[in-house]
Amino acid sequence: MREAAITAFFSTIATTIPTSLAIADLGCSCGPNTLFAVSEIISIVMDLYNAKKHELPEFQLFLNDLPENDFNTLFSYFLPRFQEKLSEQMKSKYGVRAALACFFNGVPGSFYGRLFVPRGLEENKGNISMARLSPPSVLRACYEQFQRDFSTFLEYRGQELVVGGCMVLTLLGQRNDDPSSEEYRQFWELLIIDLNEMVTEGLIEEEKLDSFNVPYYPPSPKEVHREVEKQGSFSIDCLEVFEVNRDVFEKDFDPNVVSEEASDKMVNA
Ligand SMILES: C[S@@+](CC[C@H](N)C(=O)[O-])C[C@H]1O[C@@H](n2cnc3c(N)ncnc32)[C@H](O)[C@@H]1O
């Protein structure tokens, strides 16, 4: 069935042969079976590309399971053996012990929810998260993802708590309502500046930077309020905003004071 599905997929895209393929194994577990399906898919793709004399694509492999899955053993024990087997396979098919461009990603989380990047981030060129220059559609997509995630979270906790029970939530957020505000920018823009410089220096491809996104949304107190009220399972007794101390050596940190040197500290950390 896998072979038929992949062959059918390639026959529909005959004109633009992909140079990069993503494979996701949902519920991959950790054991000798884990990389079996992935290995078979790669082998089928190799044969298809080989038959058409195309250069092999690079593979992005996403291994998903619940967070309790033993990802450490998976990556430290099973992955090197899999890679060894893959290079033997390359040798038998291509006669060379060439390395295949295979990039592995662990995706811990339940497949009953979204596991990958939210829809609507395709336009976020030159950025990896919401930023000053991100188009409004990107800010909206991140906000909508936050609304969906947070209300689902509240809904389940609402079902689990006894009537009259309480919950204390600590979450990363920001004071300001504007998701592209100065306060928020400090966090990611430092990284974005470096990544864009790496593109200029030819160390990473612009296309890769454009397609990479961190689906992270720091809600403001007003947005948290709005979602809690809308969802309806909880009411808020108390909501406080405090600064995070990013400098582990700083002794006189006051969580109620907004630090102007936060960016410097983050760079040095
Ligand atoms: C029967 S095992 C299959 C393992 C492997 N895919 C195989 O074929 O041998 C099912 C796996 O699905 C995982 N799983 C169950 N519910 C899940 C969920 N909601 N999200 C992600 N993984 C889940 C389990 O942790 C388990 O590792």
Automatic annotation (TrEMBL):
InterPro entries attached to this UniProt entry: MeTrfase_7, MeTrfase_capping, SAM-dependent_MTases_sf
Keyword Phosphoprotein: no
Organism of origin: Eucalyptus grandis
Keywords noted in UniProt: Magnesium, Metal-binding, Methyltransferase, Transferase
Domain of life: Eukaryota
Stated name of the protein: Uncharacterized protein
GO MF terms, alphabetically ordered: metal ion binding; S-adenosylmethionine-dependent methyltransferase activity
GO terms (BP aspect): methylation
Short name of one Pfam family: Methyltransf_7
Protein biosynthesis listed as a keyword: no
